[in-house]
């Protein structure tokens, strides 16, 4: 008898809901980076900003479900006027991280962040994106004049005594090498941060990045063969699932709860209205899932390193 092996799309279980993301600024950003995987811009209102009452409602549900940490992204989170009260509410129940392009880190904002940090038993991390070692390389991706404003923002963080995590995508030349990472760490030390932290992120070939370089090809999909799964069971076991952040996170947006921070423009990645509705497996059928698996991507701060 001829036995035919059929490769299938694996699903990822939700092992534990440890991490909750908030698309706190929706898809609105003050700049328009050429590699943005959500194509955020000043005019993109695909997802709207979240309000303090909306976030508080989600935090209450998250507390019941045992969520351990919270991330805030956009768009540009500091464009949301509710951000500081939102962080204050969050820091009453767990650690918080904000992902920012660093342009709106004014002295008074940094001082307020420091006050929140000091008043909480939990950590507050600010992640600032850089895409080059200098104005020319950074602004080629992020826009003219952005570098200068980020440098001011980093100085303001340093003055407030806050040590950021610097996030660099692989679009930045040389960051994939040890020498490139050392150069970034030296740049960060130049601000007086004694414990520089650097996180290198893979690019996803969706959104604006799809046009800057290329879109995913058909072969860039996960199958039971790609992940070396011998069983006909389509679900990853908990150990294999652990390398994917969607096994332990969900993303809250103004349109509902999505599987992860990457797929918020995929209608089928919206898993429900409440967090409880999303406590189920998800099919890994997108090109971005291939990147997550192959590159071992996690968007959380825990993989940041210093040397
Ligand atoms: S990558 Fe970040 S800073 Fe750049 S457009 Fe997208 S959300 Fe804004
Ligand atoms: S894009 Fe990555 S994090 Fe999102 S569902 Fe796919 S594998 Fe999971």
What does this structure look like?
This protein is of the alpha/beta class and 307 residues long. The chain has helices at 52-65, 83-90, 107-119, 135-142, 146-159, 178-189, 209-212, 238-241, 287-295; strands at 11-12, 19-23, 69-73, 96-100, 124-130, 165-169, 197-201, 249-253, 256-258, 270-272, 282-283. It has a 9-stranded mixed beta sheet with strand order 7-6-5-4-3-2-8-9-10, with helices on one face. A two-stranded antiparallel sheet has the order 1-11. Helix 1 packs parallel to helix 2 (83-90). The radius of gyration is 19 Å and the shape is globular. Bound molecules: iron/sulfur cluster (SF4) (2 copies). One iron/sulfur cluster is lined by residues 29, 31-33, 36, 40, 74-76, 101.
Q: What's the layout of helices and strands?
A:
Blueprint: E1 11-12, E2 19-23, H1 52-65, E3 69-73, H2 83-90, E4 96-100, H3 107-119, E5 124-130, H4 135-142, H5 146-159, E6 165-169, H6 178-189, E7 197-201, H7 209-212, H8 238-241, E8 249-253, E9 256-258, E10 270-272, E11 282-283, H9 287-295
Parallel strand pairs: 2-3, 2-8, 3-4, 4-5, 5-6, 6-7
Antiparallel strand pairs: 1-11, 8-9, 9-10
Helix pairs in contact: 1-2
Bound molecules: iron/sulfur cluster (SF4) (2 copies).
Characterize this entry briefly.
The chain is of the alpha/beta class and 307 residues long. The chain has helices at residues 52-65, 83-90, 107-119, 135-142, 146-159, 178-189, 209-212, 238-241, 287-295; strands spanning 11-12, 19-23, 69-73, 96-100, 124-130, 165-169, 197-201, 249-253, 256-258, 270-272, 282-283. The protein starts with 10 loop residues before the first strand and ends in a 12-residue tail after the last helix.
């Amino acid at each position: 008898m001829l036995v035919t092996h059929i490769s299938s799309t694996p699903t990822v279980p939700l092992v534990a809901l440890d991490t909750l993301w908030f698309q706190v600024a929706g898809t609105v950003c003050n700049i328009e980076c050429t590699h943005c995987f959500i194509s955020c811009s000043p005019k993109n209102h695909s997802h709207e900003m979240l309000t303090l009452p909306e976030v508080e409602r989600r935090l209450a549900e998250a507390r019941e479900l045992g969520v351990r940490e919270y991330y805030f992204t956009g768009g540009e989170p500091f464009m949301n006027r509710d951000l500081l009260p939102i962080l204050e509410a969050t820091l009453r129940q767990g650690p918080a991280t904000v992902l920012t392009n660093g342009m709106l880190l004014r002295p008074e904002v940094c001082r307020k962040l420091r006050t929140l940090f000091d008043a909480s038993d939990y950590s507050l991390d600010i992640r600032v994106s850089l895409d080059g070692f200098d104005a020319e390389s950074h602004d080629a991706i992020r826009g003219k004049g952005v570098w200068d404003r980020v440098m001011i923002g980093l100085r303001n963080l340093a003055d407030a005594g806050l040590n950021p995590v610097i996030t660099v995508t692989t679009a930045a030349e040389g960051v994939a090498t040890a020498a490139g990472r050392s150069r970034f760490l030296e740049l960060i030390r130049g601000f007086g941060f004694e414990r520089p932290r650097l996180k290198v992120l893979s690019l996803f070939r969706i959104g604006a990045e799809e046009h800057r370089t290329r879109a995913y090809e058909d072969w860039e999909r996960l199958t039971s063969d790609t992940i070396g799964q011998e069983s006909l069971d389509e679900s990853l076991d908990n150990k294999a699932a652990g390398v994917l952040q969607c096994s332990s996170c969900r993303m809250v947006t103004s349109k509902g709860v999505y599987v992860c921070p990457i797929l918020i423009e995929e209608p089928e990645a919206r898993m429900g209205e409440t967090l409880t509705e999303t406590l189920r497996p998800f099919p890994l059928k997108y090109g971005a899932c291939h990147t997550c698996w192959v590159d071992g991507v996690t968007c959380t701060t825990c993989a940041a390193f210093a040397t």
